[in-house]
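Box 3.1 A note on notation
Throughout this textbook, protein chains are presented in two layers. The first layer is the amino acid sequence; the second is a C-alpha cell string describing backbone geometry. Keep the layers aligned when reading.
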Amino acid sequence: MTASPLDISCIFDAIVGDISLDDICNCTLVCQNWHQIFTPALWRDVISYRPEQIEDNSIETDCYFTDTESLRYLVRKCRHIRTLTILGVDLLKALMESRQCTNLTEFNLVINQSDPNTTMDFELLTCLCLQNNQLKTLSVENLDCRDNIEPIGAMRMLIELSDHPNMRSLYIGPTNIADDFPLKYVVVVLVAMLRRYQDKFLEITSLTFTSNFVTRAVRGSPMLRSWGKWRTEGSGSYENEDAIAFLEREPGKITVRYSPFMSNDGSTVLLDFLKRCPGLLELKLDNYACNLEDIVTGFPALCPSLTSVILGSHELNLEETTGLLSELSDIRSISTLCMSGLGDSTALLAKHFSTLEDITFSCSTVSMEHVLTILGNCPKLTKFIVPQCVIPSRGSLECPPWVCQDLHTFGIGIYIEGQDYMTFTLLRGATIEFIPEAQRLAEKLAAPFREQLNKLGKLRTLELWLSENSPFLTLDLDPEHGLPSLSDLRSLQTIVVEGFSMTFASREVTEWVGKHWPYTTLITSPSLFV
C-alpha cells in the first residue's frame, strides 16, 4: 500500500468532528506499511490539522510509527485517552516514560513481528497496568513470534494483577497458531499460575488463551470447576479441538470455532464445556467438522436457557444436523437461529421452531418449498434472510399465507435449479428460458408470492440478490399480466441489492428504487453468495 502525505491528511480530515484533542478517549495505532512516509512531523501536522475537532472522541488509524516521538506527542496532547492500542515494546517503554497515560480502561499491546530481537517486558507492562487503576481489559497479541520471553516475568505479572481493583478481561497469546509455536512453555506456566492462584482470579469475567494445547493442562482441573459460578454468566469459544474457553465481554455467549482438520475429540471438549455452562445464552458452532453424536442427546438439559444458536459447517451430514435441530427445538427460549451450509435440513426447523424471531441462512442452498413453509409457520418471525433460494426445475409449489406479519427484514436471492445465476423471477414474472417446467412453476408462484410480500406492513429492510450473469436485469416491478406491484410496501426504509459490481446496472437499480420508494436508502454491493 502506498500513500502520500496529502492522502493521509485527507483521511484525518474526514474523521474530524467537534471535540477537542483534550477529550480524545480512544486511540488505535496498528501495523500497516505507511511508516516510511508517516513521519513525526507529518503526524503533528495531521493531528493539528483541525486540533479542535475529532469525531467520537477517538483517533483510529491504520498506521504505525517507527519512532516514539509521535506517541509521546499524542499522549501529551490527548490526556483523556481511555482505549489505547500500540505496536511494539519500544512504544510501551515510551508510554511509561511519558507518565501521562493514567486513565486507561483498555490497553492492547501488539508485539512487532518484524523485530524478533525485542524481549517482551512483562515487568514494564505490569507497572503500566498498576498505574492505570481503572484498567478493565488487557491484551498482549503476537506473542507467538517471541522466542525469548521471560516466563518468570509473566508469572509475576499475573500475581500482581490478581490484586488489580478493576481488571476483568485478560488476553495473553498469539494471533496465529503454528505447530512450532514457541510460547508453549510460557502459556502453560500462566495456566499453572492461574490454577495455583485461582481464588484471586474469581472476579475475572473474560479470559483468553489461543492455542491448541492449553486445554490439555486445564480441562477437568479444579480451576474450571471453581470458576463455574462466573463462567455460567460469561461466554466462550474453543480455538481448535483442545483450546480453553474464550470468555468474551458480552455475557452469556459461547463461540465454538473448529479447524476443518479437527479430530472427533472436539465434541468431547465441547460437551465438557457445556456441562459447566448451564446459563449459556448463545451457542455458535462454526466450521464444526467433527461428529455431533456425543453432544446431540440431552442438549436441552445442558443448555436450557439458550436464546441464540448459530450453526455453520459444510461438513455436517443431514442426519446429524436433523438430530441436533430436533434436540434444540425442545428449548423454547430460542429466538435466533443462523445456519450456514446446512441446506434443506430446515424442514424440521419450520415444523418445530414456531417461536423463532430471527432466521438467517448464510451460504446455504434452501428450497423454495421450505422457505414458504417457514414463512407460513413462524408467527413471531421479524428477520428472515435466505440468499440462495432454489426454485425446482419440476414438480409443484404452493404459497400458503404468511403468518409473520411483524417481519421487518426480508432478504432473498432466487435462482432456478440447474442454472448458475439468480433471478428476480418471483418479483417481476420474468420468462425463464430453457427450462419450461421451472417457468410454469415460477409463473404460478409469482402472483401469490408478491401478494404475501406486499402484505408485510412493517417491512423496513428488503435485501435482494442477483448475479452479473443473470439475463433478468429489468427491475420493473409494475404489474405485468395481473401481478401485484411491490410499490405498496410503503414502510420500506432500506433496500439492499447485492450481487453485482458498482457499475453494473447501477443506473437501472437507482431509477427503480427512486420510482417506487423515493425516500428509501439504497445500498448496492457485490454479493458474497454469487
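Residues 436-454 form the longest helix (19 residues). The radius of gyration is 27 Å.
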